[in-house]
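Explain this fold:

***
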Amino acid sequence: MKRLRASVAALVICTCACSSATIYRRDAPDLEATIVGGNSKYLYVETEDGRVVQIERSKITDIDHPGNGEAVVGGLWVATWSLLVGMLAELSGNMNDRNGALVTAFAVGILPGAIPLVHGIVTWHQSTSAADEMAMQLPVRRPDGTAILGTLTVPMADGATLLQAQ
C-alpha cells in the first residue's frame, strides 16, 4: 500500500510539473518561458518574471515543449494498469469478484494515470500551437490587467526584444 501511495504521489507531482518550454537559441543562453504566440518571423514568450519577449525564429535552434514527458508517464501508467485490470478479470472466476476488482483497479490505477496523460497532451498542444508560425499577434497585457494589440519593441542585450505597450 505504501508503494501505491508513493506512486500516486509521484504521479500528482508529475501532473503539477512545469508548463514552460525550453527554447534553445544560437548565441544566447537557453530560455525557460511560456510560449504565448508567434508569427513567421518571431516567437513571443512570457518569462518567469512576467515579461513578454519576442525572439527571432532564425535564432532558435530547438524548442522542448512542456507536457510530452507527462503524457508519456501517464500513458505508461494507464497501459500498465489496463494490463493488470485485464489479468484480474481473467483470473477472477466469480463475477462479483471480477466487477469489484475492475472498479478498484480503474479507480486506483487507470483514472490517476489518465489525468497526467490528458493534461500532458493538452499542455503540449497549447505550446506547439502557440509556437506555430501562423499564430496571431500577441496581445500585450498592461499592469492593470487590460490587453492591447499594438506593441513597441525594445531591443535587449541577449538578442531578445522586450514588448511594451504603446
In short: Residues 20-65+136-166 form one domain. Strands lie at 21-25, 31-38, 42-47, 52-56, 60-64, 140-141, 147-148, 152-155, 161-164.
